[in-house]
Amino acid sequence: MQSEVNGIFVTAHELKAPLSLMRQLALSLDPNDPAETREYQARMVSVSERALRQVSDLSKVARLEEGLFTMEPVAVRGVCDEVASELQYLFRFNSKKLHVKYSNRHKLVIANRDLLHSVVYNFCVNAIKYSNSSTASTLTVSDHKSDNIQSVRIVIRDFGPSLPMDIYQKLAKNQLDAPTGISFRPDSSGLGLYIATKFSRFMNANVGAIRHRDGTSFFVELPVSNQGTLFA
Fold it and tell me: What is this structure's pTM?
């Protein structure tokens, strides 16, 4: 019960934040400064789009068991390219960089394209807050093998504070069952991490994190599609 209450609090806080920012931007608009107006309008559009995506993702979480999200072979690089392109403006606007690296031989995974897009998107949005010009965030896609099971691992690396051990363990056990505030990383989206975990679990994908001395890597591992051998 307490976890549910905390989850509602975290969700309300995160959805309130973009509304407050948009209100502040709207009140700060100077109609006599066209350049500033265009900049603020662009920021308001960006903020509203991210808020709308979170609301949309939450509605999908509630409907995961309704049979609306089919599993199929998905080109993993195509999804990552879409996310990187979609967030390019946001990274550039915040004077941040996202480097994308591909080394995967297996090109197709079993997933739902829409849900996978949201998983990668949420991890990348978190990374924006924890990088600078000398420590660019990286999105890496590589082949991974564990217990003789072949998968493709998507990793988003940032340089923020270390992830608290309890959150790390919940991710490792796929037990992040409610939006959770992350004390060491106050700018992180506990809601986004929850959404990514729920979508990954639905796709039978492993999700987790790697703690570094200078940051954290969040990852999702997806089973390889047998059709991928046709494109190897």
Answer: 0.79
